[in-house]
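Researcher: First entry.
Model:
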Amino acid sequence: MEKFNHEYNADQIQVLEGLEAVRKRPGMYIGSVSIRGLHHLVYEIVDNAVDEALAGYCKNIHVTIEPGNIIKVEDDGRGIPVDIHPKTKISAAETVYTKLHAGGKFGGDSGYKVSGGLHGVGASVVNALSEWTEVTIQRDGGIFQMKFERGKVVESLTKIGDSDKTGTTVRFLADDTIFETLQYEFEVLENRFREMAFLTKGLHITLQDTREETPKTADFCFEGGLISFVEYLNKNKEKLHPTPIYMEKDGDFPIEIAIQYTTAYSENIYTFVNNINTVEGGTHLEGFKRSLTKVFNDYAKAHNILKEKDNNLTGDDIREGITAVISVKVKEPQFEGQTKTKLGNSEVAGIVQSLMNEKLAEFLEENPNVAKGVLDKCVSAAKAREAARKARELVRRKSALETTTLPGKLADCSSKNPEECEVYIVEGDSAGGSAKQGRDRRYQAILPLWGKMLNVEKARADKIYGNDKLNPVIIAVGAGIGPDFDITKIRYGKVIIMADADVDGAHIRTLLLTFFFRYMRPLIENGNVYLAQPPLYKLSKKGIEDIYCYTNDDLQKAYKDLEEKGIQREQLNLQRYKGLGEMNPDQLWETTMNPENRILVKVTMDDAIKADEIFTLLMGDDVEPRREFIQANAKYVQNLDI
């Protein structure tokens, strides 16, 4: 990678403000103090190392989860500057770790051409939210070290040895008085670092977990960059062309784009700015979409795949089955909001569009077989879209009418305030009957479903509209479907899937979640989808109140508690619930629907890439990866009903 030729020393470290508020309001800086915020600490330190890689100075990053949930991040970049900062009069390294908004990432005369991270607050925020932090720097012929406790200096930067190497090593222990948990999840970090390695061609990232007797290791380095990324995303899909289309541009706004079409019906486009996942898109995505639509339509007309009298293909037609990754590097990115999820730089749209107009048109001309294969799929999608439009209009008309046109089996609630209303999508008529009788009619609606529903992973949109199993769900939710989905129109603030605790119930949950993910994704992103957790067991005995157990651990704890009261296992009646229909209305209300007692699991989507991979794996056409997944995970299955 070409090095950004600029001095990197104390003069480039700019100070904007102090650290005081971080420990008081950690959520403002890392989003939350849950496990999600805990992982964010690691990302911030690794982001700093990746910035060194983007500048052309770092080749290797090694992350270790040590026993006791201590994190160590080592890199072979230039090392944080150790000379005295002209403004703070302390070392630049200490400044970076004790002053908010201090770093080499601000303004045109900074130490970095482009950078990610939290606007330079990363190191200081991690320091403030850690019980202790230890930083070791190799540069300028020496080894330097400094130590902190809860953001305060306990050992100032001191030279402890000599070295001809360069790099930074950071060890820290997150503060358990701030975070809900200190238990890092290896797979979460693994997914993030894989993504980082894809986006930084040739960067070697290793992750090692030494908390257990047998260490776990993940090793990532992708010389193919975005091409490797797209191939990874499509590994369980049938491809229309074997090699992804790749385009790149250097200069002030470096751009990389990789595209590959599959036989799937959904589109998967991921956008990044300076390695930050811009989940809400922005101007780079706008330029990509405009050019994609224009180039394919121009080619189709020029080669008589579309006649002059035909309407142009829409963007949705052309994006059906696409997997694309767009990565741009912007020196001074403008993000909408504090979460860095939408790029606002207007000039980027035109630059992306210009690159695509030239390179994609050139590729199609040079690869007519690929062009024809993709356009055949686009034309087929256009026909399906027209059929879907007619069905969608029918759904819209029904939704616009009063509740008399709501699904016949829906038992609606009396409240019309979505914030307090919830709908239970219940498997089977018998469970639906119990739920209808046991519910609180003021705010709880019940929609029973029967039989297996359509697997939308294997169906086009025109097969979904009007489907007798899915249509009641679409109409009941009331916010449309697909590109027409409008989260502001939902009729219920909570959409709760309530299925049996068996294999069939798990299948129905998966089918419904696949449908919501592919056609009502904002419902999941907005936190409106929940899974009800009915009890697995009931312990009963004359003279004591029934005890409901939701897990095997609950059951063992109940046995132990009762034994301490002198009640032995053999004196108890144990009922294993096979289905919701086995409960009478009072039991279903008390265990699964009463807000004071029930357990609801909110469905979240922190990682869209991983979610897409899982839905493709479990519900797609390719059987072999699914078989391998089942074989690998069979040992973890409990309560399998045959």
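Researcher: Second entry.
Model:
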Amino acid sequence: MRDFEITRGRPYPMGPSITEGGVNLAVAVKPGRALVLCIYSLKDGRRLHRIPLGEELRTGDVFALHISGLDFSKVSYSFYDGAKVFCDPYSTALAGCEKWGIRKERSLFPKKDDYDWGNEKKPSIPLEKCIQYTIHVRGFTRHTSSNVKYRGCFEGIMEKISYLKDLGINQIELMPAYDFNEIIRRPQPVRSGVRLPEDSEEATALQEVLKQEKKALRRIGTNYWGYTDEAYYFSPKAAYSGTGNASRSMKDLVKALHENGIELIMQFYFPEKTLPQLIVDCIRYWVLEYRIDGACIMGTDIPEGLILTDPLLADTKIYLRSLEALPEGHRRNTALVQDGFMYDMRRYLKSDEDMLRSFVTHQLDNPEKHGVINFITNYYGFTLADLVSYDRKHNEDNGEENRDGTDYNFSWNCGVEGKSRRKYIRLLRRRQVFNALSFLFMSAGMPKLMAGDEFGNSQNGNNNAYCQDNAVTWLDWRDIDKNRELFDFVKSFIKYRTGSSLLCNSRPRSLSDRNAVGYPEVSYHGDQAWYPHFESYSRSLGCMYTCRGEFLFAAYNMYWIEEKFALPKLPKGKKWSVVMKTSEGFFEKGEIMADQENLYVSGRTVVLLEGVDVEEDDEDS
């Protein structure tokens, strides 16, 4: 006996939606399948109602029903299609998933939104001025050293906003923060054979084996990253809320970030054959409901054309792994995420042959119709500290006998595998890290930094830590004090980049004198000015950048020996001043060079010069 009413509803929009008299549900089923609605008590989880839905509620393969007269705050729901029980794919909130590692998911009915956004306003930062910082919500603050109240939660990120601002970050990217299944399960074994008498010793022994085997196989690991084949894309992850209300926690985070001039980008992974409609609906929902600034969309069947031409998403940053369907005259808030920069820069960093042309290509890459996102490290592969500490992956703790993860890391351990106490090795590794960051921040595209790389985060050589929910992946914030020079270097470089019109430019870099100032915007030099060496054996290059009277010269030497660079002559009234060496870091005040014609750079070092104005007396001297 039920005291609520179910009538025909609207087949669109999909999922749950509040109406004047109750809640509308619209859910798609496989062709020919029937559907049963199950309603449960939130208090004790009991199933209260099991209601087969009639064909009069079906439109195509969508069942649409309107429920009225039910106290929605006290119940949850799921569906059964004759093959399995499942939650509403468009669920906006889940019950039974509030604690990490516990999954008894059921869909919650939506509540009326009374969230006060106040005077919140999106920062709307141009792509070329963005400094992106990728975060795993749980790993960012789960470690006790984070010193936050809500460890591993959205609120924990809020408590670190002052840190992000101090570092110079103006855009964070969250690895999957919608509700995914973090428990990796193995299918139960199927056994066949003779039927044994129930009271026999063999049957008793077999039952005990099956019991133990079932217990052992119930759960085999953790999907820490969140890139799963099944997820609830419209629901913020309940286990990431420190207060028990994931929707409010997410809105609080977005609001706090926007108030501090920081954008939020959400990562979404859609497996093969995900319906294009669901993908577009998902991005629209997060933009409208949570006011996110953009989405990084991953998967194999992404409807790029639908997303990039959606007028509702015209002001939304869209980051994609491919841009085959880029519309004509497209806006510059679309960016391409690709691995080419990462692998080529790593190869140049470790002094591989014939890498200078690739290096230059990536440094110039800044298309007119879309942006590019550059990174040296990502969640897959080595951290920055491990990139210079390990030649080989060390994924033994993943339980797959070190067979998982890529074998092509393009890394160099600087002579010793893993940690080392040798001063020479430690100094070389630090300089290599500084070199890698110089490649990143001097390139034209948007730089992307993995959380923790700015203070030497290590995963002990694990390059595929998808299942490591522990100290391997949790950031240890004590490393900031241990690697203060690195942290200060990253902070200084971000400040330098964002303050330079030469490095933050929306226009593609040109090899010509486009501004008619007597110098090309970008030029290359070797041991003679204006004569670079791009032979396969060459590993050093001088790059000069000019714009509106500003001059920068970057000397990249990935040889293991000292190299000479000839310096281009500056206009009258300017001299070259050293502002940074990766062997030392940024200088508090630039040092004007005594020799204005030649620069000698130590092996595996990057030096940055700036053309500065000088008094007439100084120029004569």
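Model: Note on the second entry: The CA atoms of residues 449 and 472 lie 18 Å apart.
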